[in-house]
């Protein structure tokens, strides 16, 4: 069975793994499993996004496609007086993200199971963070870009990361079309981080 990390209910056998990593000056421990994205190490795109994202102390943040949680958990540490909502379609990823909130003593974040924005009611986020599932194709990724604008408050930011050779230029054009402009805020290791601002 050719199963992807964006499957709702992975049926692949469990194979737990623990990652210990330093991100933004703090050590984190993440429990991962088979059937979730980048389970052996934090992928370079995620690392670059975490390095580039600008999160204020009281921000309300959405981590769209949170996987086992590294982006949202670091964001919660940066937004200590704010709150973070972490979302994934993958039930196994959602359970891991909840476990990793506890492992890293994060109390200002919650995790919900949702196919994209379908179960996300809030429309007043300061920041949306996304490492999009490009293997699922533009038909999955582009609606996430479009709907992200609807869930940001005026002045809100969308940060996305993309492998340079895997459609970064087309992603930048899509963000520019939806938001009116796009900034490349960081690049490295074959990835680029883009930011759109809701005007």
UniProtKB/TrEMBL annotation:
<keyword id="KW-0698">rRNA processing</keyword>
<dbReference type="GO" id="GO:0008757">
    <property type="term" value="F:S-adenosylmethionine-dependent methyltransferase activity"/>
</dbReference>
<dbReference type="GO" id="GO:0008170">
    <property type="term" value="F:N-methyltransferase activity"/>
</dbReference>
<dbReference type="GO" id="GO:0006364">
    <property type="term" value="P:rRNA processing"/>
</dbReference>
<dbReference type="InterPro" id="IPR029063">
    <property type="entry name" value="SAM-dependent_MTases_sf"/>
</dbReference>
<keyword id="KW-0963">Cytoplasm</keyword>
<feature type="domain" description="Methyltransferase small">
    <location>
        <begin position="28"/>
        <end position="194"/>
    </location>
</feature>
<dbReference type="InterPro" id="IPR046977">
    <property type="entry name" value="RsmC/RlmG"/>
</dbReference>
<keyword id="KW-0808">Transferase</keyword>
<dbReference type="GO" id="GO:0003676">
    <property type="term" value="F:nucleic acid binding"/>
</dbReference>
<protein>
    <submittedName>
        <fullName>16S rRNA methyltransferase</fullName>
    </submittedName>
</protein>
<dbReference type="GO" id="GO:0032259">
    <property type="term" value="P:methylation"/>
</dbReference>
<keyword id="KW-0489">Methyltransferase</keyword>
<dbReference type="InterPro" id="IPR007848">
    <property type="entry name" value="Small_mtfrase_dom"/>
</dbReference>
<dbReference type="InterPro" id="IPR002052">
    <property type="entry name" value="DNA_methylase_N6_adenine_CS"/>
</dbReference>
<dbReference type="Pfam" id="PF05175">
    <property type="entry name" value="MTS"/>
</dbReference>
